[in-house]
Design a protein that fits this description.
This protein is an alpha/beta fold. It folds into 3 domains: 188 residues, FAD/NAD(P)-binding domain (3-Layer(bba) Sandwich), CATH 3.50.50.60; 106 residues, D-Amino Acid Oxidase, Chain A, domain 2 (2-Layer Sandwich); 51 residues, no CATH class. Helices cover 35% and strands 30% of the residues. The protein binds flavin-adenine dinucleotide (FAD).
Length: 379
């Protein structure tokens, strides 16, 4: 019997495989695709914090600002001290997976997990590989299998309550400003989320997310707004859960990253939060191995661990996201007028942090009491 079976070789699963293997545990990492990192379903915007955990040089661009486009094409330009990094997501994932393999993890590609069950003695995972049905047992199973997690479906039943649908293209289009991402707000672009354009030289990643289903019509309209209309080189997209699961641990099981909805609600960014959750999962699991306790009660410490680092942030950001999602264009225009003053821009420039945006929101609320009042009233 293995020590751990980790389903999924995205950043969260590979990083967890690395940490557990490094401690000498027998880890089987199952990945349904034949190649790690493909197909790409990501814009690849991260902060330098990610590189405190992961060794990777897969960098496509670094940017230091953002153009926030409000309804009516009114734009606020912000800049930051620290750089935001745009990664090549496929090679980034390969780098993290390389760390896991280097530490001794057994990565099996083309292995699609079909079902998972647990009992008091072990976890059992059934997967299909080269047309054959295979079953493996381990002391614990971890769902690192993304937004449509089979581990979550098999053992936890429900899914995160708030999900964003997305579309994105790689377009042969060179943005004039290679040092800023553009963010498009308002009902022309999305139901409650936003659109984006991220420069990487002569290719621009253009996409949008929308709460619930139905992002496609917004997306087609958005693409037409670029002049000249860009040539599309690749198309991607998919769901992003933006609310974490009520429970991310169970008997002989844990959920990390997107599988547990451990994603930043305001931006839909889940690379950093997935890696943070994997870090704490490794800690809880190794403590469980040492004390031979992998029951639900013991593994609850995983929730405490990851929430102690990012739980408060995700909870507050989730509330702000719901508030933002309910705003109509008229209110967004009011918001534009409130925050387009030099003083507010200074606050954004000094406090803006895409991993921890609640600090900025708090400062802006203090500076603009009318926004705070609307937030408290829920409109
Ligand atoms: C269009 C788009 C843009 C995004 N942009 C950003 C961004 O700019 N910055 C950011 O931080 N985040 C972004 N995200 C979110 C980010 O991609 C995810 O949060 C992140 O990939 C989560 O990592 P993960 O390891 O939890 O899951 P994933 O990266 O989804 O990895 C899950 C892995 O599990 C495998 N798998 C799934 N089911 C099975 C199965 N049954 N058997 C075996 N293997 C299985 C999958 O093939 C996959 O390799 C974006 C998402 C989308 C859709």
């Amino acid at each position: 019997m293995r020590d751990a079976i980790i389903v999924g070789a995205g950043p969260a699963g590979s990083y967890l495989s690395h940490l557990l293997s490094k401690q000498g545990y027998d880890v089987l990492n199952l990945e349904e695709h034949e190649e790690v990192g493909r197909p790409v379903e990501c814009t690849g915007v991260v902060t330098e914090r990610v590189f405190r955990y992961v060794r990777s040089r897969s960098i496509a661009n670094t940017v230091s600002g953002a153009n926030i486009v409000f309804p009516g094409n009114r734009t606020i330009k912000i800049g930051k001290q620290e750089k935001t990094i745009v990664i090549y997501r496929d090679s980034f994932d390969k780098d993290v997976s390389g760390m896991a393999i280097g530490s001794g993890a057994d990565l099996r590609l083309g292995s699609r997990v079909r079902s998972v069950r647990v009992n008091d003695g072990y976890a059992e995972v059934e997967f299909r590989e080269s047309g054959e049905l295979i079953s493996e047992r381990a002391r614990i199973v971890i769902g690192a299998d993304g937004a449509n997690s089979i581990v979550r479906k098999s053992l936890y039943g429900h899914r995160p309550s708030r999900v964003v649908s997305t579309y994105q293209v790689d377009a042969s289009f060179t943005m004039d400003d290679q040092d800023s991402v553009s963010v498009f707000l308002g009902r022309d672009f999305s139901n409650g989320f936003f659109g984006w354009a991220v420069p990487t030289g002569n290719i621009t990643r253009i996409g949008l997310g929308s709460i619930g289903k139905g992002a496609l019509p917004y997306f087609l309209k958005m693409i037409r707004q670029f002049n000249p209309e860009p040539k599309i080189l690749a198309i991607t997209g998919g769901p992003i859960p933006i609310s974490y699961m009520h429970r991310t641990s169970g008997n002989r099981s844990l959920l990390v990253g997107d599988a547990g909805g451990i994603v930043k609600p305001l931006t839909g960014g889940g690379i950093y939060t997935g890696i943070v959750s994997a870090y704490w999962a490794a800690r809880a699991i190794s403590e469980g191995f040492e004390s031979d306790r992998l029951d639900q009660r013991f593994l609850q410490r995983y929730e405490k661990y990851w929430k102690s680092e990012i739980g408060r942030e995700l909870r507050i950001d989730g509330m702000i996201q719901k508030f933002y999602a309910a705003l109509n264009d008229r209110y967004l225009s009011r918001l534009y007028r409130s925050i387009s003053s030099d003083r507010s821009i200074d606050i954004i420039n000094s406090k803006g942090d895409i991993d921890y945006p609640s600090k900025l929101a708090l400062q802006l609320f203090l500076k603009n009491p009318s926004i705070a009042l609307s937030f408290l009233r829920g409109n």
